[in-house]
Amino acid sequence: MELDVRGEICPYPMMKAVEAMKKLNGTDSVVVITDHAPCLETIPPQAGRYGYICEIEETGSPEWKISLIPEGGR
Amino acid sequence: MAYKIETNTNQPANMPGLLRTHNLAAICVLLASLSLALVMSGMESILAPLWLLGMTAGFTLQRSRFCFASAFRDLFLFGSSRMLKGILVGLAVATIGFSINMYGMILDPKFGALPPQANILPFGISTVIAGVIFGFGMVISGGCVSGSLYRMAEGYISSWVSIGGVLIGLGLLSQNWNWWWSTFISNEPKIWLPSKLNLGYGGSVLITLTIIISVFLIVLWWESRAGLSMPSIKRKEEPDDTFNEKLGVLWNTIFVRGWSPILGGAILGGIGIFMYMTHMPWGVTGELSRWSNNIMTFMNIAPPDALGLSDLGGCAGRAGETGFFTHTFAVTVGVLPGSLIAALFSREFKLRFPQNRKRYIQALGGGVIMGYGAGLGIGCTVGAFFSSVPSLSLSGWLFAISLAFGAFVGVQAIKRIS
Fold first, then answer.
1. Would you call A37 and B8 a contact, using CB atoms and an 8 Å cutoff?
2. Which of A58, B178, B234, B390 has the least C-beta neighbours within 10 A?
3. How many CB atoms lie within 10 A of CB B32?
4. Cα–Cα distance, B141 to B366 (Å, whole number)
5. B interface toward A at CB cutoff 8 Å?
6. Which of chain B's residues have a Cβ under 8 Å away from the Cβ of A47?
Protein backbone atom coordinates (compact mmCIF):
# COMPACT_ATOMS: atom_id res chain seq x y z
CA MET A 1 0.00 0.00 0.00
CA GLU A 2 1.40 3.37 -0.98
CA LEU A 3 0.68 6.63 0.81
CA ASP A 4 1.67 9.75 -1.10
CA VAL A 5 1.57 12.47 1.57
CA ARG A 6 3.71 15.04 -0.23
CA GLY A 7 2.54 18.52 0.74
CA GLU A 8 1.14 17.30 4.06
CA ILE A 9 2.79 18.47 7.28
CA CYS A 10 2.85 17.08 10.80
CA PRO A 11 0.97 15.35 12.25
CA TYR A 12 -0.99 14.05 9.23
CA PRO A 13 1.69 11.89 7.54
CA MET A 14 2.22 10.06 10.81
CA MET A 15 -1.50 9.77 11.53
CA LYS A 16 -2.09 8.31 8.07
CA ALA A 17 0.84 5.89 8.41
CA VAL A 18 -0.47 4.71 11.79
CA GLU A 19 -3.99 4.33 10.39
CA ALA A 20 -2.65 2.23 7.48
CA MET A 21 -0.55 -0.01 9.75
CA LYS A 22 -3.55 -0.57 12.01
CA LYS A 23 -5.80 -1.41 9.06
CA LEU A 24 -3.36 -3.77 7.34
CA ASN A 25 -2.39 -5.35 10.64
CA GLY A 26 0.82 -6.86 9.26
CA THR A 27 -0.69 -8.27 6.06
CA ASP A 28 1.06 -5.81 3.74
CA SER A 29 3.76 -3.17 3.85
CA VAL A 30 3.11 0.58 3.82
CA VAL A 31 5.23 2.91 1.70
CA VAL A 32 5.04 6.57 2.74
CA ILE A 33 6.28 9.18 0.26
CA THR A 34 6.92 12.52 1.95
CA ASP A 35 8.70 15.85 1.48
CA HIS A 36 8.38 16.84 5.15
CA ALA A 37 11.67 16.16 6.97
CA PRO A 38 10.20 15.93 10.50
CA CYS A 39 8.45 12.69 9.41
CA LEU A 40 11.84 10.95 9.49
CA GLU A 41 11.81 11.40 13.26
CA THR A 42 8.11 10.89 13.94
CA ILE A 43 7.14 7.87 11.81
CA PRO A 44 9.92 5.36 12.72
CA PRO A 45 9.06 5.23 16.46
CA GLN A 46 5.48 4.29 15.53
CA ALA A 47 6.54 1.28 13.45
CA GLY A 48 7.60 -0.88 16.40
CA ARG A 49 4.25 -0.43 18.13
CA TYR A 50 2.42 -2.11 15.25
CA GLY A 51 4.94 -4.87 14.52
CA TYR A 52 6.59 -3.16 11.58
CA ILE A 53 10.21 -2.45 10.73
CA CYS A 54 11.22 0.74 9.00
CA GLU A 55 13.51 1.64 6.13
CA ILE A 56 14.14 5.12 4.79
CA GLU A 57 15.36 5.94 1.33
CA GLU A 58 16.21 9.47 0.21
CA THR A 59 14.65 9.79 -3.23
CA GLY A 60 14.95 13.49 -3.94
CA SER A 61 15.70 16.81 -2.34
CA PRO A 62 13.68 16.97 -0.26
CA GLU A 63 11.84 13.70 -0.69
CA TRP A 64 11.92 10.42 1.17
CA LYS A 65 10.40 6.99 0.84
CA ILE A 66 9.66 5.50 4.25
CA SER A 67 8.97 1.76 3.94
CA LEU A 68 7.11 0.11 6.78
CA ILE A 69 7.46 -3.65 6.45
CA PRO A 70 5.70 -6.27 8.63
CA GLU A 71 8.25 -7.79 11.00
CA GLY A 72 7.44 -11.36 9.89
CA GLY A 73 8.59 -10.76 6.30
CA ARG A 74 7.63 -8.83 3.24
CA MET B 1 14.84 -3.87 14.76
CA ALA B 2 16.04 -2.97 11.30
CA TYR B 3 16.26 0.63 10.35
CA LYS B 4 18.45 2.14 7.73
CA ILE B 5 18.80 5.31 5.77
CA GLU B 6 19.84 4.91 2.18
CA THR B 7 20.85 7.81 0.04
CA ASN B 8 19.81 7.42 -3.53
CA THR B 9 20.08 10.90 -4.96
CA ASN B 10 22.35 11.83 -7.80
CA GLN B 11 23.68 14.69 -5.68
CA PRO B 12 25.15 13.31 -2.47
CA ALA B 13 25.45 16.12 0.04
CA ASN B 14 29.09 16.65 0.87
CA MET B 15 31.59 19.43 1.16
CA PRO B 16 33.14 19.58 -2.33
CA GLY B 17 29.70 20.43 -3.67
CA LEU B 18 29.81 23.91 -2.19
CA LEU B 19 29.31 25.30 -5.68
CA ARG B 20 25.96 23.59 -6.19
CA THR B 21 22.98 25.82 -6.93
CA HIS B 22 21.29 25.43 -3.54
CA ASN B 23 24.52 26.24 -1.69
CA LEU B 24 25.17 29.26 -3.87
CA ALA B 25 21.62 30.45 -3.25
CA ALA B 26 22.17 30.05 0.50
CA ILE B 27 25.37 32.07 0.33
CA CYS B 28 23.60 34.82 -1.66
CA VAL B 29 20.85 35.05 0.98
CA LEU B 30 23.50 35.14 3.70
CA LEU B 31 25.41 37.96 1.99
CA ALA B 32 22.20 39.92 1.37
CA SER B 33 21.15 39.57 5.03
CA LEU B 34 24.58 40.64 6.24
CA SER B 35 24.44 43.69 3.95
CA LEU B 36 21.04 44.54 5.42
CA ALA B 37 22.62 44.24 8.89
CA LEU B 38 25.19 46.84 7.82
CA VAL B 39 22.49 49.15 6.49
CA MET B 40 20.49 48.81 9.72
CA SER B 41 23.52 49.40 11.94
CA GLY B 42 23.88 52.73 10.15
CA MET B 43 20.40 53.69 11.40
CA GLU B 44 20.74 52.37 14.95
CA SER B 45 23.71 50.29 16.03
CA ILE B 46 21.68 47.87 18.19
CA LEU B 47 19.63 46.72 15.19
CA ALA B 48 22.53 44.74 13.69
CA PRO B 49 23.12 42.36 16.64
CA LEU B 50 19.35 41.89 17.09
CA TRP B 51 18.98 41.06 13.39
CA LEU B 52 21.88 38.57 13.53
CA LEU B 53 20.38 36.95 16.64
CA GLY B 54 17.01 36.71 14.85
CA MET B 55 18.76 35.04 11.91
CA THR B 56 20.54 32.61 14.24
CA ALA B 57 17.20 31.80 15.84
CA GLY B 58 15.67 31.07 12.42
CA PHE B 59 18.66 28.92 11.46
CA THR B 60 18.37 26.96 14.73
CA LEU B 61 14.58 26.55 14.43
CA GLN B 62 14.96 25.08 10.93
CA ARG B 63 17.92 22.82 11.77
CA SER B 64 16.27 21.32 14.85
CA ARG B 65 12.78 21.45 13.27
CA PHE B 66 11.72 23.12 16.48
CA CYS B 67 7.98 23.19 16.91
CA PHE B 68 6.08 24.33 19.98
CA ALA B 69 2.83 23.07 18.44
CA SER B 70 4.13 19.52 18.09
CA ALA B 71 5.58 19.63 21.63
CA PHE B 72 2.14 20.09 23.15
CA ARG B 73 0.18 18.19 20.50
CA ASP B 74 2.24 15.01 20.16
CA LEU B 75 2.13 14.36 23.87
CA PHE B 76 -1.63 13.86 23.58
CA LEU B 77 -1.69 12.50 20.05
CA PHE B 78 1.07 9.90 20.26
CA GLY B 79 2.59 10.09 23.73
CA SER B 80 5.77 11.54 22.23
CA SER B 81 7.75 14.02 24.31
CA ARG B 82 10.63 14.47 21.86
CA MET B 83 10.09 18.17 21.22
CA LEU B 84 8.85 19.05 24.70
CA LYS B 85 12.15 17.87 26.19
CA GLY B 86 13.99 20.30 23.89
CA ILE B 87 11.80 23.17 25.07
CA LEU B 88 12.41 22.28 28.73
CA VAL B 89 16.18 22.27 28.21
CA GLY B 90 15.90 25.68 26.50
CA LEU B 91 13.85 27.03 29.44
CA ALA B 92 16.46 25.80 31.93
CA VAL B 93 19.34 27.43 30.02
CA ALA B 94 17.45 30.70 29.59
CA THR B 95 16.31 30.79 33.24
CA ILE B 96 19.90 30.86 34.46
CA GLY B 97 21.02 33.53 31.96
CA PHE B 98 17.93 35.71 32.42
CA SER B 99 18.37 35.65 36.21
CA ILE B 100 21.96 36.82 36.00
CA ASN B 101 20.88 39.59 33.64
CA MET B 102 17.95 40.65 35.87
CA TYR B 103 20.22 40.61 38.92
CA GLY B 104 22.38 43.14 37.11
CA MET B 105 19.36 45.46 36.81
CA ILE B 106 17.43 44.89 40.06
CA LEU B 107 19.78 44.08 42.89
CA ASP B 108 17.09 43.75 45.56
CA PRO B 109 13.87 42.23 44.17
CA LYS B 110 11.95 42.85 47.42
CA PHE B 111 11.98 46.55 46.66
CA GLY B 112 9.04 46.12 44.28
CA ALA B 113 10.55 47.30 41.01
CA LEU B 114 10.35 44.90 38.08
CA PRO B 115 13.31 44.42 35.73
CA PRO B 116 12.74 46.48 32.58
CA GLN B 117 12.01 44.59 29.35
CA ALA B 118 11.50 41.25 31.14
CA ASN B 119 8.42 39.33 29.97
CA ILE B 120 6.57 39.52 33.28
CA LEU B 121 2.95 39.46 32.15
CA PRO B 122 -0.43 39.68 33.92
CA PHE B 123 -1.48 36.53 35.75
CA GLY B 124 -5.17 35.75 35.67
CA ILE B 125 -8.23 34.73 33.69
CA SER B 126 -6.99 36.49 30.55
CA THR B 127 -3.80 34.37 30.65
CA VAL B 128 -5.88 31.18 30.82
CA ILE B 129 -8.27 32.18 28.04
CA ALA B 130 -5.37 33.33 25.83
CA GLY B 131 -3.43 30.09 26.39
CA VAL B 132 -6.42 27.83 25.68
CA ILE B 133 -7.36 29.75 22.51
CA PHE B 134 -3.75 29.81 21.33
CA GLY B 135 -3.16 26.11 22.06
CA PHE B 136 -6.32 25.13 20.18
CA GLY B 137 -5.50 27.39 17.22
CA MET B 138 -1.91 26.21 16.83
CA VAL B 139 -2.96 22.55 16.70
CA ILE B 140 -5.63 23.28 14.09
CA SER B 141 -3.31 25.41 11.93
CA GLY B 142 -0.39 23.00 12.16
CA GLY B 143 2.17 25.28 13.79
CA CYS B 144 2.48 28.10 16.29
CA VAL B 145 3.46 31.64 15.29
CA SER B 146 7.25 31.15 15.33
CA GLY B 147 6.86 27.70 13.73
CA SER B 148 4.76 29.06 10.88
CA LEU B 149 7.21 31.93 10.46
CA TYR B 150 10.27 29.76 9.86
CA ARG B 151 8.27 27.32 7.71
CA MET B 152 7.25 30.23 5.48
CA ALA B 153 10.94 30.46 4.52
CA GLU B 154 11.11 26.69 3.93
CA GLY B 155 8.43 27.04 1.26
CA TYR B 156 5.33 25.80 3.08
CA ILE B 157 2.42 27.66 1.47
CA SER B 158 0.05 26.67 4.29
CA SER B 159 2.32 28.52 6.73
CA TRP B 160 1.91 31.72 4.67
CA VAL B 161 -1.85 31.25 5.04
CA SER B 162 -1.45 30.66 8.80
CA ILE B 163 0.53 33.86 9.29
CA GLY B 164 -2.12 35.71 7.25
CA GLY B 165 -4.69 34.29 9.68
CA VAL B 166 -2.57 35.39 12.65
CA LEU B 167 -2.55 38.98 11.31
CA ILE B 168 -6.36 38.88 11.07
CA GLY B 169 -6.66 37.40 14.58
CA LEU B 170 -4.34 40.03 16.03
CA GLY B 171 -6.40 42.70 14.28
CA LEU B 172 -9.66 41.39 15.74
CA LEU B 173 -8.09 41.39 19.19
CA SER B 174 -6.78 44.97 18.81
CA GLN B 175 -10.33 46.06 17.97
CA ASN B 176 -11.59 44.81 21.34
CA TRP B 177 -8.44 44.94 23.45
CA ASN B 178 -9.89 47.74 25.55
CA TRP B 179 -12.80 45.53 26.62
CA TRP B 180 -10.41 42.78 27.73
CA TRP B 181 -8.26 45.40 29.44
CA SER B 182 -11.04 46.97 31.48
CA THR B 183 -12.83 43.68 32.24
CA PHE B 184 -9.87 41.47 33.15
CA ILE B 185 -6.31 42.49 32.44
CA SER B 186 -6.24 45.79 34.36
CA ASN B 187 -7.09 43.90 37.58
CA GLU B 188 -4.59 41.11 37.11
CA PRO B 189 -1.30 41.18 39.04
CA LYS B 190 2.12 40.66 37.52
CA ILE B 191 3.66 37.97 39.69
CA TRP B 192 7.45 38.11 39.63
CA LEU B 193 8.72 35.22 41.73
CA PRO B 194 11.85 36.90 43.20
CA SER B 195 9.71 39.62 44.79
CA LYS B 196 7.36 37.13 46.50
CA LEU B 197 7.66 35.32 49.86
CA ASN B 198 11.28 36.35 50.33
CA LEU B 199 12.23 33.97 47.53
CA GLY B 200 14.84 36.27 45.99
CA TYR B 201 16.71 35.16 42.91
CA GLY B 202 18.13 31.96 44.44
CA GLY B 203 14.78 30.61 45.58
CA SER B 204 13.03 31.57 42.35
CA VAL B 205 15.64 29.94 40.13
CA LEU B 206 15.57 26.84 42.33
CA ILE B 207 11.76 26.61 42.12
CA THR B 208 11.75 27.19 38.36
CA LEU B 209 14.46 24.59 37.71
CA THR B 210 12.72 22.12 40.02
CA ILE B 211 9.48 22.50 38.05
CA ILE B 212 11.36 22.10 34.75
CA ILE B 213 13.12 18.91 35.91
CA SER B 214 9.89 17.50 37.36
CA VAL B 215 7.99 18.11 34.11
CA PHE B 216 10.90 16.51 32.21
CA LEU B 217 10.65 13.36 34.35
CA ILE B 218 6.84 13.25 34.07
CA VAL B 219 6.87 13.45 30.27
CA LEU B 220 9.62 10.80 30.15
CA TRP B 221 7.33 8.51 32.15
CA TRP B 222 4.38 9.44 29.94
CA GLU B 223 6.41 8.49 26.87
CA SER B 224 7.39 5.14 28.37
CA ARG B 225 3.69 4.33 28.87
CA ALA B 226 3.03 4.93 25.16
CA GLY B 227 5.65 2.33 24.19
CA LEU B 228 7.49 4.63 21.82
CA SER B 229 11.14 4.10 21.03
CA MET B 230 13.31 5.25 18.18
CA PRO B 231 14.63 2.23 16.27
CA SER B 232 18.42 1.97 16.12
CA ILE B 233 19.74 3.99 13.24
CA LYS B 234 22.01 2.38 10.69
CA ARG B 235 23.63 5.27 8.92
CA LYS B 236 25.30 5.13 5.57
CA GLU B 237 28.97 5.03 6.42
CA GLU B 238 30.72 8.31 5.88
CA PRO B 239 34.47 8.23 5.16
CA ASP B 240 36.23 10.06 7.98
CA ASP B 241 39.98 9.76 7.39
CA THR B 242 41.42 12.64 5.40
CA PHE B 243 41.03 16.30 6.32
CA ASN B 244 38.58 16.80 3.46
CA GLU B 245 36.46 13.86 4.59
CA LYS B 246 36.44 15.12 8.16
CA LEU B 247 35.39 18.52 6.86
CA GLY B 248 32.59 16.80 4.94
CA VAL B 249 31.35 15.04 8.07
CA LEU B 250 31.42 18.33 9.99
CA TRP B 251 29.52 20.03 7.15
CA ASN B 252 26.84 17.33 7.11
CA THR B 253 26.46 17.43 10.88
CA ILE B 254 25.86 21.17 10.92
CA PHE B 255 24.17 21.92 7.60
CA VAL B 256 22.55 18.75 6.31
CA ARG B 257 21.38 16.38 9.04
CA GLY B 258 18.73 17.67 11.44
CA TRP B 259 19.79 18.62 14.95
CA SER B 260 18.22 17.10 18.03
CA PRO B 261 15.47 19.22 19.62
CA ILE B 262 17.49 19.25 22.85
CA LEU B 263 20.46 20.90 21.11
CA GLY B 264 18.06 23.28 19.34
CA GLY B 265 16.36 24.17 22.64
CA ALA B 266 19.67 24.82 24.39
CA ILE B 267 20.84 27.12 21.56
CA LEU B 268 17.49 28.96 21.45
CA GLY B 269 17.72 29.45 25.21
CA GLY B 270 21.19 30.95 24.70
CA ILE B 271 19.95 33.20 21.88
CA GLY B 272 17.17 34.39 24.19
CA ILE B 273 19.78 35.34 26.81
CA PHE B 274 21.85 37.29 24.25
CA MET B 275 18.74 39.06 22.94
CA TYR B 276 17.77 40.05 26.47
CA MET B 277 21.32 41.26 27.17
CA THR B 278 21.26 43.27 23.94
CA HIS B 279 17.85 44.80 24.59
CA MET B 280 14.86 42.53 25.19
CA PRO B 281 13.85 38.86 25.33
CA TRP B 282 12.84 37.11 22.12
CA GLY B 283 9.28 37.56 20.86
CA VAL B 284 7.47 37.57 17.54
CA THR B 285 3.96 38.79 18.31
CA GLY B 286 4.92 42.47 18.70
CA GLU B 287 6.13 42.85 15.13
CA LEU B 288 3.12 41.00 13.69
CA SER B 289 0.78 43.22 15.77
CA ARG B 290 2.50 46.23 14.28
CA TRP B 291 1.88 44.94 10.76
CA SER B 292 -1.71 44.10 11.59
CA ASN B 293 -2.28 47.61 13.01
CA ASN B 294 -0.60 49.24 10.01
CA ILE B 295 -2.74 47.24 7.59
CA MET B 296 -5.90 48.23 9.47
CA THR B 297 -4.82 51.88 9.52
CA PHE B 298 -4.28 51.67 5.76
CA MET B 299 -7.78 50.20 5.36
CA ASN B 300 -9.22 53.02 7.50
CA ILE B 301 -10.27 50.65 10.28
CA ALA B 302 -7.49 51.57 12.73
CA PRO B 303 -8.10 50.02 16.17
CA PRO B 304 -8.68 52.35 19.12
CA ASP B 305 -5.62 53.28 21.20
CA ALA B 306 -4.83 50.28 23.37
CA LEU B 307 -5.26 51.13 27.05
CA GLY B 308 -2.44 50.10 29.35
CA LEU B 309 -0.57 48.13 26.72
CA SER B 310 2.61 50.19 26.80
CA ASP B 311 3.11 49.47 30.52
CA LEU B 312 2.79 45.73 30.10
CA GLY B 313 6.14 44.86 28.61
CA GLY B 314 6.28 41.59 26.75
CA CYS B 315 5.98 41.42 23.00
CA ALA B 316 2.89 43.39 22.26
CA GLY B 317 3.90 46.27 24.49
CA ARG B 318 6.48 47.18 21.88
CA ALA B 319 4.04 47.19 18.98
CA GLY B 320 3.99 50.98 19.21
CA GLU B 321 7.47 51.40 17.71
CA THR B 322 7.35 53.45 14.54
CA GLY B 323 9.40 53.18 11.38
CA PHE B 324 10.16 50.09 9.36
CA PHE B 325 13.44 48.84 10.86
CA THR B 326 12.55 48.49 14.53
CA HIS B 327 13.90 46.21 17.25
CA THR B 328 10.93 43.88 16.86
CA PHE B 329 11.48 43.86 13.09
CA ALA B 330 15.07 42.69 13.61
CA VAL B 331 14.34 39.79 15.96
CA THR B 332 11.19 38.65 14.11
CA VAL B 333 11.87 39.13 10.41
CA GLY B 334 15.48 37.98 10.92
CA VAL B 335 14.05 34.49 11.46
CA LEU B 336 13.09 34.32 7.75
CA PRO B 337 16.55 34.59 6.10
CA GLY B 338 18.06 32.44 8.87
CA SER B 339 15.59 29.65 8.18
CA LEU B 340 15.87 30.09 4.41
CA ILE B 341 19.67 29.74 4.57
CA ALA B 342 19.36 26.57 6.67
CA ALA B 343 16.69 25.11 4.35
CA LEU B 344 18.80 25.82 1.25
CA PHE B 345 22.02 24.31 2.65
CA SER B 346 20.17 21.17 3.75
CA ARG B 347 18.29 20.96 0.43
CA GLU B 348 14.99 21.05 2.29
CA PHE B 349 13.65 24.16 0.57
CA LYS B 350 10.67 23.40 -1.64
CA LEU B 351 7.39 25.13 -2.42
CA ARG B 352 4.84 22.79 -0.91
CA PHE B 353 1.17 23.19 -1.72
CA PRO B 354 -1.18 21.07 0.39
CA GLN B 355 -3.03 18.52 -1.78
CA ASN B 356 -5.87 18.47 0.68
CA ARG B 357 -7.89 21.70 0.31
CA LYS B 358 -9.10 21.44 3.89
CA ARG B 359 -5.59 22.35 5.03
CA TYR B 360 -5.96 25.90 3.70
CA ILE B 361 -9.12 26.39 5.74
CA GLN B 362 -7.42 24.89 8.78
CA ALA B 363 -4.34 27.08 8.34
CA LEU B 364 -6.44 30.24 8.02
CA GLY B 365 -8.98 29.42 10.73
CA GLY B 366 -6.35 28.10 13.15
CA GLY B 367 -4.21 31.15 12.39
CA VAL B 368 -7.04 33.59 13.19
CA ILE B 369 -7.79 31.80 16.49
CA MET B 370 -4.10 31.64 17.36
CA GLY B 371 -3.57 35.31 16.48
CA TYR B 372 -6.44 36.33 18.76
CA GLY B 373 -4.89 34.25 21.57
CA ALA B 374 -1.42 35.73 20.97
CA GLY B 375 -2.82 39.25 21.15
CA LEU B 376 -4.73 38.53 24.35
CA GLY B 377 -1.79 36.67 25.89
CA ILE B 378 0.53 39.58 25.00
CA GLY B 379 2.77 37.04 23.34
CA CYS B 380 2.82 33.67 21.63
CA THR B 381 4.58 30.45 22.63
CA VAL B 382 7.80 32.48 22.48
CA GLY B 383 6.93 35.76 24.23
CA ALA B 384 4.35 34.54 26.76
CA PHE B 385 6.04 31.21 27.50
CA PHE B 386 9.62 30.64 26.27
CA SER B 387 10.71 34.17 27.31
CA SER B 388 8.29 34.51 30.24
CA VAL B 389 9.22 31.47 32.36
CA PRO B 390 12.93 32.49 32.34
CA SER B 391 11.84 36.01 33.36
CA LEU B 392 10.76 34.21 36.57
CA SER B 393 7.18 35.28 35.87
CA LEU B 394 4.42 33.01 37.12
CA SER B 395 2.34 33.94 34.06
CA GLY B 396 4.62 31.79 31.85
CA TRP B 397 3.59 28.62 33.67
CA LEU B 398 -0.10 29.49 33.70
CA PHE B 399 0.06 30.19 29.95
CA ALA B 400 1.83 26.82 29.41
CA ILE B 401 -0.80 24.83 31.33
CA SER B 402 -3.54 26.60 29.39
CA LEU B 403 -1.71 25.94 26.12
CA ALA B 404 -1.57 22.25 26.97
CA PHE B 405 -5.32 22.19 27.66
CA GLY B 406 -6.07 24.05 24.41
CA ALA B 407 -3.81 21.68 22.49
CA PHE B 408 -5.61 18.70 24.04
CA VAL B 409 -8.96 20.03 22.78
CA GLY B 410 -7.36 20.75 19.39
CA VAL B 411 -6.10 17.17 19.15
CA GLN B 412 -9.65 15.84 19.66
CA ALA B 413 -10.73 18.13 16.80
CA ILE B 414 -8.02 17.16 14.28
CA LYS B 415 -8.58 13.47 14.94
CA ARG B 416 -12.02 14.04 13.43
CA ILE B 417 -11.01 16.16 10.45
CA SER B 418 -7.84 14.41 9.24
1. no
2. B234
3. 11
4. 4
5. 1-9, 11, 22, 65, 67, 70, 73-74, 77-78, 80, 82, 142-143, 151, 156, 158, 227-231, 258, 346-350, 352-356, 359, 414-415, 418
6. 231
B209 closest CA partner among B81, B123, B91, B381: B91
Q: What is the ipTM of this complex?
A: 0.89
Which of A18, A45, A61 has the CB atom closest to B229's CB atom?
A: A45
Chain A: give the shortest CA distance to residue B238, in Å.
16
Residue of B nearest to A57 (CA): B6
- Minimal Cβ distance to B418: which of A15, A41, A48: A15
Q: Verify whether the Cβ–Cβ distance B355 to A15 is below 8 Å.
A: no
User: Could you tell me if A57 lies within 8 Å of chain B, comparing CB atoms?
Assistant: yes
What residues contact residue A24 under an 8 Å CB cut-off, 6+ apart?
A1, A30, A70
Mutate to test the interface with A, among B61, B66, B141, B355 (most CBs of A within 10 A): B355
For chain B, how long is the longest CA-to-CA vector? 68
Per-residue pLDDT of chain B (418 residues; tens, 9 = 90+): 345 454 444 444 444 466 688 899 999 999 999 999 999 999 888 999 999 999 999 999 999 999 999 999 988 888 888 899 999 999 999 999 999 999 988 888 888 788 888 899 999 999 999 999 999 999 999 999 999 999 999 999 999 999 999 999 999 999 999 999 999 998 999 999 999 888 889 999 999 999 999 999 999 998 888 777 777 655 567 788 889 888 888 998 999 888 999 999 999 999 999 999 988 899 899 899 989 989 999 998 888 888 877 777 666 555 556 778 888 899 999 999 999 999 999 999 999 998 888 999 999 999 999 999 999 999 899 999 999 999 999 999 999 999 999 999 999 999 888 6
Residue A61 has its nearest CB partner, among B4, B11, B231, at: B11
Torsion sign, CA atoms B167, B168, B174, B180: negative
Residue of A29, A70, A31, A53 whose CA lies nearest to B233: A53
- What is A2-70's CATH number, 3.10.180.10, 1.10.10.10, 3.30.110.40, 3.30.460.40? 3.30.110.40
A72 touches chain B (CB under 8 A): no
Cβ atoms B313, B185 nearer than 8 A: no
DSSP string of B395-413?
HHHHHHHHHHHHHHHHHHH
d(CA B141, CA B363): 4
DSSP one-letter code for B254: I
